[in-house]
Design a protein that fits this description.
Layout: E1 8-15, H1 19-26, H2 31-41, E2 50-56, E3 67-73, H3 77-83, E4 93-99, E5 114-116, E6 125-133, H4 136-145, H5 155-180, H6 186-195, H7 198-206, E7 211-219, E8 224-228, E9 237-240, E10 244-248, H8 251-258, E11 265-267, E12 272-276, E13 282-286, E14 298-301, E15 315-317, H9 322-328, H10 334-345, H11 348-354, E16 362-366, H12 372-386, E17 390-391, E18 395-397, H13 408-415, E19 419-421, E20 432-437, H14 444-455, E21 461-466, H15 488-499, H16 503-516, H17 537-548, E22 557-561, H18 564-570, H19 578-581, H20 587-607
Parallel strand pairs: 16-17, 16-20, 20-21, 21-22
Antiparallel strand pairs: 1-4, 1-10, 2-3, 2-4, 5-6, 6-7, 7-8, 8-12, 9-10, 9-11, 12-13, 14-15, 18-19
Helix pairs in contact: 2-8, 4-5, 5-6, 5-7, 10-12, 10-18, 15-17, 16-20
Length: 609
């Protein structure tokens, strides 16, 4: 319902046959581009603010371009960048990126991929990723302490410079090694190009980072790599056959693009890198943590990687993002489809209670479009208990209305009409309406649009169902949910605290957060969880309804949220639930949520002066 800008999409292809092989077999020099285009379009849901691509051509002569990049902004960015493609750009290595900004920074400057140029092929680095780093200030300090001066303060550019610096060191290591072997001139260059060990570069780069990421890159000498964060927060999948190897953010993208079954697509494990050498050799290398990806226990420690690292003594616990399963990834993945159905079905008992078991006088529906699969699960669950179920498509989502009108009041009026209803789809003042969405985040769309239009149908009662639990905490790993006050659950909780005169709890939590920030980061805990502790889910639900209910609305409203237990039962292999529980997988998450509460209290205090 409320669009969340989230994560990004990545796509990579390494052709393992000569270019003329593909032209002879498939009749086009653009085979690699065609596959990259399809992979990017199939992930358009992951980024609509910008797109970019890069290619590397092997065996080009000095004086001719061998590394190409195109970037564009806007929803039509994919079409735009591919319209600029020429035969000269066809190479063996391809990389694509789709961007959603989660930091508030926009403009072509911030669109991936990022490119670091050098006259040595092996020192050229092109980087893109699906990531958000929580400790970029520490990495910035590390770089500047070495005498570097990054041009831009942002995790993408700083990562490019840090990894580029490590790539330079790898090239210099090989230069020394070549000289010791008695090589000279172009033979040294060839030796470097043929022997780059990207694992060395990745191990000395990624050890510095706290965050969720899939980092992808190409070098001018023909290295390709993708590395996943050691907590497994962000996803990546790859497919290989005798012609190519490809990687994407979602499994169905590879299944559709290359027409293969799911068992041919492999998930990259937490902390693991897929590395394709210049000569086409492929290897999987553990960069950080261990190799037991489907375990809730520690995956390993960073302590052995060096004293200069800012992530020493951090434990990596498998924390694959559950929100990927609820909302972010496309539901065409076979596992995600079944998980979303289970999320809907598991809500059946709570829904039956909310309608007093009166299925005969209840219409079931959903908010389009991402909640549709959970809706199927919900109705299946009701059928198992009751038999016949009355279902209707009550809500329609119109194309996005262009809010070109400058006056805020008129702009808000247009925004309220993004959704419409099926008039006559239920019996007025007789039928209950149960309507499911994948999540309720800020509540703005409910208050300004959904509840108002549903009330026009005059239902006896509206039961608003969320297939996810209450979202109580910000995300710091690639989703635009950074401030506590954005969440209707947090605002409702603070309203309950005020009503009941519990401001000592707020003061105690504020001071606890301040103390926590003085600790070593690996010892920090999330102190904000204390503000929710005195209240039941139902108490917070009731306050959310009170806050979001339009003043002139007639129908009663009841909220039903997924339980934490239900979430884990439906998505057992994705235990990352920090949005709902506050259990952040990384030290940076705990640090930032404590700081967020401090910022909230201090801004409120300042506003009241």
């Amino acid at each position: 319902m409320e669009q969340l800008k989230h994560e990004c999409g990545v796509a990579m292809i390494r052709l393992l046959k000569p270019l003329d092989y593909f032209e002879k077999k498939y009749g086009t020099w653009a085979y690699g581009f065609n596959k990259l285009y399809l992979m990017m379009e199939k992930q358009h849901n992951r980024g609509q603010e910008g797109a970019g691509l890069a290619t590397v051509c092997l065996n080009k002569q000095p004086g001719t371009e061998y590394m190409f990049r195109e970037k564009a902004e806007g929803k039509n960015a994919i079409t735009e960048i591919f319209s600029r493609v020429t035969e000269e750009m066809a190479g063996e290595l391809y990389m694509g990126h789709l961007r959603y900004s989660t930091t508030g920074k926009s403009g072509l400057t911030f669109v991936h991929p990022f490119l670091r140029r050098n006259n040595w092929r092996a020192k050229n680095l092109c980087l893109c990723g699906n990531f958000n780093m929580t400790n970029i200030d520490e990495v910035f300090d590390f770089l500047t302490a070495q005498g570097q001066s990054p041009r831009i303060y942002g995790d993408s550019y700083i990562t490019l410079e840090l990894m580029g610096h490590r790539l330079d060191r790898e090239v210099e290591r090989l230069f020394t090694e070549a000289k010791e072997k008695g090589l000279e001139g172009i033979d040294i260059t060839n030796y470097i190009d043929d022997n780059v060990e990207m694992a060395n570069v990745l191990k000395t780069t990624m050890i510095h980072y706290d965050g969720g990421y899939v980092m992808c890159g190409l070098t001018g000498s023909g290295e390709m790599f993708a590395v996943r964060d050691p907590w497994g927060i962000r996803p990546a999948f790859f497919y290989r056959d005798e012609e190519l190897i490809a990687l994407a953010s979602e499994r169905p993208v590879l299944q559709t693009t290359f027409d293969v079954d799911r068992d041919k697509v492999v998930e990259l494990k937490p902390g693991q890198a897929l590395i394709v050498h210049k000569n086409g050799d492929i290897k999987l290398e553990q960069i950080l943590g261990g190799n037991t990806a489907q375990s809730n226990g520690p995956l390993g420690s960073a302590a052995s990687q060096g004293e200069e690292c800012s992530m020493v003594n951090v434990q990596y616990k498998y924390s694959a993002c559950s929100f990927e399963r609820i909302y972010f990834s496309r539901g065409s993945d076979c596992d995600i489809y079944q998980e979303r159905k289970r999320l809907g079905e598991q809500l059946t008992p709570a829904i039956m209670k909310a309608i007093d078991g009166d299925v005969d006088h209840t219409v079931f529906s959903y908010i389009p479009n991402t909640a549709e699969v959970a809706y199927y699960g919900m109705t299946d669950g009701v059928r198992k208990l009751h038999g016949d179920v009355r279902t209707e498509k009550v809500v329609w989502k119109d194309i996005k209305l262009r809010t070109f009108i400058s006056a805020n009041t008129e702009r808000n009026d247009l925004a309220a009409h993004v959704y419409d209803i099926s008039y006559g789809s239920l019996t007025p003042n007789v039928d209950n309406l149960v309507i499911i969405d994948d999540s309720i985040v800020r509540g703005t769309t409910l208050k300004e649009s959904i509840f108002k239009i549903l009330d026009r149908l005059h239902p006896k009662r509206i039961v608003m169902v969320s297939s996810s639990p209450q979202i109580r905490y910000p995300d710091y790993y690639g989703i635009d949910m950074a401030r506590l006050e954005e969440f209707c659950a947090f605002r409702a909780t603070m309203a309950l605290i005020e009503e009941r005169g519990m401001w000592q709890l707020v003061n105690d939590t504020y001071l606890a957060c301040k103390r926590e920030l003085q600790k070593p980061k690996e010892e920090m805990e999330n102190c904000v969880r204390a503000v929710y502790a005195p209240f039941t889910v139902e108490e917070i639900n009731n306050k959310i309804v009170e806050m979001l209910r339009p003043a002139d609305m007639q129908a009663p409203i009841e909220l039903v949220f997924q339980s934490i237990e239900g979430l884990h039962e439906a998505c057992p292999n994705h235990p990352g639930d920090w949005y709902f529980t506050g259990h952040y997988p990384t030290p940076g998450g705990n640090r930032l949520v404590n700081q967020a509460f401090i910022n909230y209290i201090e801004s409120k205090t300042s506003a009241n002066k």
